[in-house]
Amino acid sequence: MKMAANKANESLEIALEKFSKNIREVGSQAIWSLSSCKPGFGVDQLRDDCVDTYWQSDGQLPHLVNVQFRKKTTVQDICIYTDYKLDESYTPSRISIRAGTHFNDLQEIEVVELTEPSGWIVIPIKDIHDNPLRTFMVQIAVITNHQNGRDTHMRQIKIHSPAEKRAITLDLGHLTTVECRQFSYLR
Prior knowledge:
The protein is mostly beta strands. Helices cover 14% and strands 42% of the residues. The chain has a 5-stranded antiparallel beta sheet with strand order 2-4-9-6-7, with no helix packed on it. The radius of gyration is 20 Å and the shape is elongated.
């Protein structure tokens, strides 16, 4: 099992390698809650960076993962790890992504159909202008499972935001020559 976990983590790293300098994981800055879970299969397992553990719901569909940020946050994509070969009827087949400021104003922004997924699913999150979405809350709703399964398994969820690019300006007095001015800004 450890070999499978290592391969899964490597596949996410490879899939996001070209973006690695341009994104950051912001899920740790949020408060996570679930519509239901079996004891010992909750948020801690969903966020523990191990694909051998998972969240297991316990109740009626839809199953919800709520992610609430303390401040308005830019969300570029949501990555979900699922494994149909291990989870079969517990594997989501239709997922709805919703966003808003709180539970009462959530708007559906993306619906994803999955066919026997195995590995990381990257769901880009865009606003109406095709930019990463700025929001206080994201809700991931499992609408249906494979084989009409009742409960669901999700092994990991990561939320990515564009990395902030900041220039630092140093005031070194009046630099008058071209040679001195070229060193007056740090990037």
